[in-house]
Amino acid sequence: MGTFKAIRIDKADKGTTATLTQFDEAELMDGDVTVKVEWSALNYKDGLALTGKAPVVRRFPMIAGIDFAGTVEQSSHPAWKPGDAVICTGWGMGETHLGAYAEKARVKGDWLVGLPQGLSARDAMAIGTAGFTAMLAVLALEKHGLTPASGPVVVTGAAGGVGSVAIAVLARLGYHVIASTGRLAEGDYLKSLGAAEIIDRNELSAPAKPLGKERWAGGIDSVGSHTLANLLAMTRYGGAIAACGLAAGMDLPSSVAPFILRGVCLLGIDSVMCPLPARKAAWQRLAADLDRGKLSEITHEIELDQVASLGPQILAGQVRGRTVVRIS
Ligand code: NDP
């Protein structure tokens, strides 16, 4: 057995360290599929793991990285054989199971999704957990009954990973998208993705009134806290907000008013433990409904040795769109 390159998280006297190192293949955890990892990505949660800012890593040593795309090397799982192109996101990778910033990964075959036709492994990671989550939110809004005819939709954290993919997909589907951002200088970028209107996130960050002027029929929120409370208070009668993030905080200082007086729904979105059928459906929709030109506009590429330095930047909201990591 040999070694492979990986970003290893270790416990230190104060907090944790993240180091690019050689990892021993014998230390890989249990799993019935071994994958040669080709691409990974940088997500908000990766920023938390790399910096140790929140206790997302729950086993040491850990290999960081919550999603990968690659090729099956070995498999004892009936669904997969050597040479298959696969995607893996979530399931505790980079948290409780050795993760994706590595040339090799061993996981459960039940966690994997086949690379959809029309997407390259790099495309899949340009989408990654953030883009997959954006699509889960779109699917939840559709299940609620939202259509472009229902009215405008708002996307918060617009210039981030979830936000950028959400805008591109919703605009392609014909929605009038209102993008909320703290980076008004990114206005041209957001318009190029398909945003019809751009609003300053400060408009949504003050404590919310129980009800406000009805501004949108639906929304996708990466921010949480007062922003989510304001989104709910400003949602039209019968509308829905899909909540997937906490970039501004875990709290939700809201009231029941939007729910009991306007029939507004709050839809929870989780990508980590999302069951396989829903994953497959979301990836198929991403292959069909995400414009590849927009995807490359969103995407910035880095090498494995640059990942650790970007951890603090994504937490500070300074990373635009999606960052793919070339592994091998
Ligand atoms: P990014 O850092 O790429 O995007 C987050 C965006 O939120 C930033 O770009 C910024 O957008 C905005 N933002 C950052 N800080 C603040 C703040 N203090 N107040 C208001 N807005 C802020 O992260 P991702 O897109 O990868 O993830 C977004 C969120 O979704 C995270 O909280 C993440 O943990 C969560 N998430 C949840 C998943 C799930 O399964 N539920 C899966 C994936 C992500 P702008 O500059 O445009 O304002």
UniProtKB/TrEMBL annotation:
Domain Enoyl reductase (ER), which positions? Answer: 15-325
Q: Which GO terms describe its molecular function?
A: acryloyl-CoA reductase (NADPH) activity
Entries under InterPro entries matching the protein? Acrylyl-CoA_reductase_AcuI, ADH-like_C, ADH-like_N, ER, GroES-like_sf, NAD(P)-bd_dom_sf, Zn-ADH-like_protein
Residue ranges annotated as transmembrane are none
Residue stretches in coiled coil? none
Report the Gene3D superfamilies cross-referenced here.
Medium-chain alcohol dehydrogenases, catalytic domain, NAD(P)-binding Rossmann-like Domain
**SMART domains per the UniProt record, alphabetical:** PKS_ER (SM00829)
**Pfam families per the UniProt record, alphabetical:** ADH_N, ADH_zinc_N
Cited NCBIfam families: oxido_YhdH (TIGR02823)
This one is known as Dehydrogenase NAD(P)-binding domain-containing protein
Species of origin = Bradyrhizobium oligotrophicum S58
Q: What is the lineage of its organism?
A: Bacteria, Pseudomonadati, Pseudomonadota, Alphaproteobacteria, Hyphomicrobiales
